[in-house]
Write a structure and sequence with these properties.
Blueprint (H helix, E strand, L loop, with lengths): L3 E4 L11 E4 L2 H9 L11 H4 L9 H11 L6 E3 L5 E3 L3 H16 L2
Antiparallel strand pairs: 1-2, 3-4
Length: 106
């Protein structure tokens, strides 16, 4: 029996939309090894309390993690005066989602 991750994102909470994705066996192994018994709680409660944007938000924190790992995001020009990071949490998220989708097809 395949295990799944079932959750309701904050942005779709109004219309009760839920997301169910298959869980990779490596992720299951990692999660099983974590200490704790709360199966309904956050994986990282301290991060769950943080905002997404701003100097103390998760996006900036992720940029610092990348820099400390020697990964430099680079920038590309957006519309108007906006610049965007070529590598970011969102590019990692999209790559991960593509890998999950590919895994569903096999």
């Amino acid at each position: 029996m395949k295990k799944v991750i079932d959750f309701q994102p904050q942005k779709t909470r109004k219309n009760n939309a839920r997301i169910v994705i298959p869980m990779h066996p490596d992720l299951e192994t990692h999660l099983t090894a974590l200490v704790g018994t709360d199966t309904d709680g956050f994986l990282s409660p301290s991060l769950a309390q943080k905002g997404i944007s701003g100097k103390s938000g998760l996006s900036e924190k992720f940029k610092r993690v990348m820099t400390n790992a020697g990964i430099f995001s680079g920038t590309s020009k957006g519309q108007g005066f906006k610049n965007f990071s070529k590598l970011s949490f969102h590019s990692l998220r999209h790559t991960f989602n593509s890998a999950l989708l590919a895994a569903c097809r096999t």
